[in-house]
Amino acid sequence: MGLGREREVEIRKPPRFIPGERVQATLHVKNDGTYAGKEIGENLVRKGDEGYVRDIGTFLQQFYIYAVEWVDRGTVVGMRARELMSLDKAAASGAVETARASTKE
């Protein structure tokens, strides 16, 4: 009936990020009322902010929730994988591409 529910059970696959991995927010994240000490609707994370995955949990036995420490903000916010992008993997793939290019020369 198109109720907008997600069908994928994310935890059937390994987590996309690991603790200690450097990540970047791909979306603005506002407080939905679950973050204590901040007003509902207040920005918790801005698109482009960089942080580190501290821990991985699950929600509703369906989704991974990544506890990300946003060092510049001094906060830890639970994030979904779709809200994050790895900077470590991007840097590693960039190094591999650079190495490949230099070996071709």
TrEMBL record:
Gene Ontology process terms (BP): nitrogen fixation
Sorted UniProt keywords: Nitrogen fixation
Domain of life: Bacteria
InterPro entries on file: Nitrogenase_MoFe_mat_NifZ
Protein name: Nitrogen fixation protein NifZ
Source organism of this protein record: Rhizobium mongolense
Pfam families in the cross-refs: NifZ
Family affiliation: Belongs to the NifZ family.
